[in-house]
Every structure is written in C-alpha cells, then in structure tokens.
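Appendix B, example 12.
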Amino acid sequence: MTGFASLARDLGPLHLNLELRAVNHRYLDLQFRLPEELRHLESALREPLAGRVHRGKVECRVQLQRNEAVAVAGSVEIAALERLLAAQSAVLQRLPDARTLSVHEALRWPGVIAEPSLAPEALASELAGMMHVVASDFLATRAREGERLKAMLLERCARIGELCAHVAPKIPLLQKAYEVKLSERLREAGVAADPERMAQELALFASKIDVAEELSRLTTHVAEVERVLAAGGACGKRLDFLMQELNREANTLGSKSVDAELTRVAVELKVAIEQMREQVQNLE
C-alpha cells in the first residue's frame, strides 16, 4: 500500500524535516535514511511502526540542516579569530604575495562564529515526538487507501456472486438439451434408442458438466473474503490465499464447460478474480 506523511520543525539553530513514504510491495521493506549524527536513533524511530506496518516498501528520511540566519547572528569568538590572524601572519611571512582573508572568509572559518547548538538529548526527544505524529498521519493515509481497496474488492465479490447465481440454473438446461440432441442423432441415424444406454450417456454427461461443487466453493470463498474484509486489520496474506483458491475453482469451472455461455462466465470470473488478486497483493 502507498502512503505519505511529513513534518518539518524549526528548532532555532537547526531545521529538522522528517518524511515517511511507502510504495506497494508484497512484503515489508523498511529503510531509514538518517544523517550520521542521528544514526543511533534508528531503533527508536522504528518503534512507532513496529507491529503496525506489515507490507510495503517504506522509507523514513530525516534531514537535519543548519539554520543559516541563526548562525550568522552568533557572536564572534575573539580567541578563534586571533588564532586565525596569527596563522595568516605566519603564512604571509613565508608567502608575502599571498592574498589576505576577506571579512566574509574569516567569518566563515570554523569556530570564528559561536553558533547556537541544540543538546543531543533535546534533539532526540524532538525527533521521537515528530516520528509519532508522522507515523499516525502515515497510517491514516494507508487506512484511507485500504478503505478504497476494500470497496473495490467487495464490488468484485458481488459480481462473482452474480455470475455463480447465473450459472447454477443453466446446468439442468444443458443436460436436457444434450438429451434432446442425443435422441435426435439416434433418430437421424435410424437407430432405436436403448433406454439403459441412454441413461448411462446422460449420467456421464451430467457428471462431466456438474459444477455444483465448484460453484459452492466459489460462493464459500467469496463469503470468507467478505468476512475477512469486515473484520479489518492486517488481512493481505489471508486474502492472497483466498485468491489462489478462487482462481483454482474458476479454472475447474472453465475446464468443464461444454457451452459458450458457461465459457464466457468462466472467463469473466477469472478476470474479476485477477483484478482482486492484483489489489490484494498491495493490501496491508
């Protein structure tokens, strides 16, 4: 399932941005992109997602940037500046033609400007709080997508039920049509019909085209899909199995077809089941 949520906060000397995004994946692939100074917080960032995300390629990205406006406003460290000037004088004695530092270059030298900082504990606490907020928003977006997928799956379930109900009354009609056709062929050939032999042929034909068991299992599996969807929670893997069972019954139904209409229904069943299977692989 897809999902996205982000949050940015200005912490004075630092600007912190946290982003969670997910794309469809059959299994869970959770990756963290963190600045090196925050790498030790990865386990804490996993906690809000643990047990709540089971599928998808999920990426958590954290960006930590200096707030340049605050840095420029810092005070000048005179001792650091004097050390820099002393180093410059030593260089100029050996290289008199060398260019001297500009004010801008001197101020950008590490340590010359006393930059405000944030305690590591405060930064870790702030990031943990942001992660809980972002995780909740992220899961909410996935839940909304899940509701849309659920509606589509229920629609396909209803369609499969309609197709099964359409096929069931046609089986006795196919048996009757075969009996009439067999009698006509015998009459055209001038052969007297043997009642016992006719009964055997009709029994064999009825056995060949009997799809009552397949229809019953299709109906049962559809009811189970609807039950699983109604129960909610993480159900993607359970639905994966049910899609395999539905597809198996639809294949058997098609293999028993002796009628164009029955073949059409079997094909339509397989199309509906395949549409469900594609979406179920993305379902949490």
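The two ends are 7 Å apart (CA to CA). The mean pLDDT is 81.
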